[in-house]
Amino acid sequence: MYDVIVSGAGPSGSYLSYLLSRNGYKVLQLEEHREVGKPVECTGLVSERVFKYVNSRSMVNEVHGANVFFPNGKSIHISKGEKTIVMYRDDFDKDVSAMAIGAGADTRINARVLDAKVNDSYGEVKYRENGEIKYARANIIVGADGANSRIRLSLNYERPKKIISTYQVDSSFHLDDQDDVNVFIGSENSKGFFGWAVPSGEITRIGVGVDHVTAIKYFRNINVKFNRSQILGINAGPIPINYLSKTYGNRSLLLGDAAGIVKPLSGGGIYTGIISAKNAYTAIDQSFNRNNFSEDALKAYQKLWKREIGRELFIDAKIQQYFSKISTNDTLLNKIYDTINREDIIRRINSLGDIDYPAKVVFSILMRKPQLIKYFLFGG
């Protein structure tokens, strides 16, 4: 019998497995795919904070700014002193997994979780490894298995309230400007979210996120800006951008995307997933010290991660909700451009901008340009 079974070998699952194994816990980690890090369903943009937790050489580029393109064809340039890392996401996942394995985690690939259940005595997972049906038991089961979490479904957690669909390609187009991400908003580029082009060395990652529509049409509108360049690879996936009201249960926890612990404004989930894993370790360790794995004991997990990033995610979700309502109103978006395209506002954005904690810059702009509140709340 294991101490903890972790479903998923993405950053959150592997980082938790690493922390647990490093501290003497017996961990079984199950990864459904044949290779850790594949398929890639991520743009690979992270802050330097991430590398304080993970020792990885997956960086392919670093950027210091963004060009935000509005429906009128004009753009606002944002820049900041600290760098944002563009990385090979599959390599990053492998590096975190290697940390877990090196610490002693029993990591299995091609091991797909089929079902999970818990009772007062243990948790049990049914999984298929290399075609063979197997069972394993542990004191605690952790779902770190993404937006379509099998653990979440099996243990009857609620579903995420909002899912963004994404479509992204690795393109042969080479951006001369390797220092800035390009962001595209407006009715031609997305519905409910935005499009992007990320300079990644010799390739460019071009993609779009959408809400309740098909992404491919919007992707084509963005890709044409890059001369319909040769597509080298395609990846797509769902992003839950509202955290669950309850991320813990009897002998179970949910991490990262499985719990909707994702940055609502960007869809980024690596930093938030690692933060959820760090706090999950603390809660699990406390439960073992008390020999209590009940729902009441594990609710400490939610208190911990909410204390660290809950307020930010809640505010960002509200902002995203308002933006989603006006995301196809080109006239209104152009009014917003006219309102914020001022030297003092851009300077403010540059000084406060933080991809992990964007709420502070939004509040700062709203205080200086209160008419934006009317745009967001009432559509003009």
Please provide a written account of the structure.
This protein is an alpha/beta fold. It has 2 domains: 2-316, FAD/NAD(P)-binding domain (3-Layer(bba) Sandwich), CATH 3.50.50.60; 325-379, no CATH class. The protein contains 10 helices and 16 strands. The strands form 2 sheets. Strands 1, 2, 6, 7, 8, 9, 15 and 16 form an 8-stranded mixed beta sheet that branches. An 8-stranded mixed beta sheet has the order 3-5-4-11-12-13-10-14. Strand 12 and strand 13 form a beta hairpin. It is globular, with a radius of gyration of 21 Å. The mean pLDDT is 93.
Q: Bin the strand percentage.
A: 25-35%
Q: Quickly count the helices.
A: 10
Write the CATH homologous superfamily of the largest domain: FAD/NAD(P)-binding domain
**Roughly what percent helix?**
25-40%
Total strand count, please?
16
Structural class: alpha/beta
Which sequence of SSEs, written as H and E, runs from N to C? EHEEEEHEEEEHEEEEHEEEHHHHHH
Name the poorly predicted regions: none
Shape: globular
CATH architecture of the largest domain: 3-Layer(bba) Sandwich
Summarize the structure.
By secondary structure, the protein is an alpha/beta fold.
Topology readout:
Layout: E1 2-7, H1 11-22, E2 27-30, E3 45-47, E4 59-69, E5 75-87, H2 89-103, E6 106-108, E7 111-118, E8 123-129, E9 132-143, H3 150-154, E10 163-171, E11 180-184, E12 195-200, E13 203-210, H4 216-223, E14 231-240, E15 248-249, E16 252-254, H5 270-290, H6 295-326, H7 330-340, H8 343-352, H9 359-368, H10 371-378
Helix pairs in contact: 1-2, 1-5, 5-6, 8-9
